[in-house]
Amino acid sequence: MNKQTNSKKSNADLHVRLDKWLWAARFFKTRAAAKEAVEGGKVHYQGQRAKCSRNVEIGAKLVIRQGMDEKTVIVMAISDQRRGAPEAQLLYQETEESIKNREESAAVRKVMRGNVAPDHRPNKKERRKIIQFKDR
Prior knowledge:
five-stranded antiparallel beta sheet, alpha+beta, 5 strands
C-alpha cells in the first residue's frame, strides 16, 4: 500500500476532523478551544450537533456561535494546516444573511451600551473621588 502525506492528497481525498478544520480556518486559537466549542454545542454541522471527530466535507453548512455572534459558513475547501488569515478565509464563505444578522446585532449592542466611554482619563483628584465613592 502506498502511503501519501496530506500535502500530496487532493482536496477531495483529504479527511479532516471538524475541530482541526475550525482551528485551521482560524475560528479558534487552539484545537483544544475548537474541541471544547464543538463538545459544548456551539458548532452545528448541517443543522445538527456534531462530534469533534466528524469529517468535514466541501459544501457543508456550519453554524458557529462565538460569544454573542453567530456565523453561518459554507465549507469551500479543506485543510488540516493552519496558515495565514488570508489563506484561512479561502476555506469558507460566510452567508449574506449571517453577515447581515451579525451587523444588526452589533449595532443593537452598541445602541444599548450607550455613550459609556468618558471623554478623558480621570486626573489624580478625580481618581481619589472614584476610590472614595467605591469604598462607601
